[in-house]
Design goal:
Blueprint: E1 5-6, E2 19-23, E3 37-43, E4 47-52, E5 58-62, E6 83-89, E7 93-98, E8 108-112, E9 120-122, H1 126-129, E10 135-136, E11 139-140, H2 143-147, H3 150-153, H4 165-173, H5 184-187, E12 189-192, E13 197-201
Parallel strand pairs: 2-4
Antiparallel strand pairs: 1-12, 2-6, 3-4, 5-13, 6-7, 7-12, 8-9, 8-13, 10-11
Pfam family, one: Thaumatin
Protein name: Thaumatin-like protein
InterPro entries: Osmotin/thaumatin-like_sf (IPR037176), Thaumatin (IPR001938)
Length: 203
């Protein structure tokens, strides 16, 4: 497969919605070995966010949508491992990433359905290796969630924080993923606009 291109932009410069596909434990259970996908958030003409609710293996075909307006889909349970995407951006590109900025709950992988760019993966056993101070029910917190300081949350603006021992813990295990909020140069990727994607939880 061709490599994904690393983006020279950051999430703040993207137009349209930044959408997330996440797996979060919920009350709806599917049959063993399967998960039910729910269209959790949608608005005509702007996009959709999907949540997998049973923590088993999930495959979701995410089809191209028109990214217009400024609606942001965000699920506020955690820790969780989202795949984030902004589709149909300038220069006919999709911007995609896996983020550990909200922590980690389950491994995931996504790939294009054709050979236009490579897979992104975060499949390390992070929950088992999680530092004690970041451990949480169902996963491993990002240090921003635990400590809430600029050192980990980058709240003072661009260039206000650097990698830390905690972000390096995540980056060493999932080099494709965001390990802290300003990890754009090594974590935000592009594929051609119009690409269809397959997302797998617990590959």
């Amino acid at each position: 497969m061709l490599p994904l291109s690393t983006s020279r932009t950051d999430v703040a410069t993207l137009s349209g919605p930044l959408l997330r596909l996440v797996a979060a434990e919920g009350s709806t259970r599917a049959s063993p070995g399967r998960s039910t996908l729910h269209q959790a958030l949608s608005r005509p003409g702007s996009g959709a966010g999907l949540i997998a609710t049973s923590m088993a293996v999930v495959e979701a075909n995410v089809r191209r949508v028109t990214a217009t307006g400024s609606w942001n889909a965000r699920v506020t349970v955690g820790p969780l491992t989202p795949w984030e995407f902004a589709l149909n951006q300038p220069n006919n590109l999709d911007f995609v990433d896996i983020s550990l900025v909200d922590g980690f709950n389950i491994p995931m992988e996504f790939s294009p359905t054709t050979d236009v760019c490579r897979n992104l993966r975060c499949t390390a056993p992070i929950n088992e290796q999680c530092p004690n101070e970041l451990r949480a029910p169902g996963g491993c917190n990002n240090p921003c969630t635990v400590f809430g300081t600029n050192e980990y949350c980058c709240t003072d603006g661009p260039g206000s924080c650097q990698p830390t021992d905690y972000s390096r813990f995540f980056k060493e295990r999932c080099p494709d993923a965001y390990s802290y909020p300003q990890d754009d140069p090594t974590s935000l990727f592009t594929c051609p606009a119009g690409t269809n994607y397959r997302v797998v939880f617990c590959p």
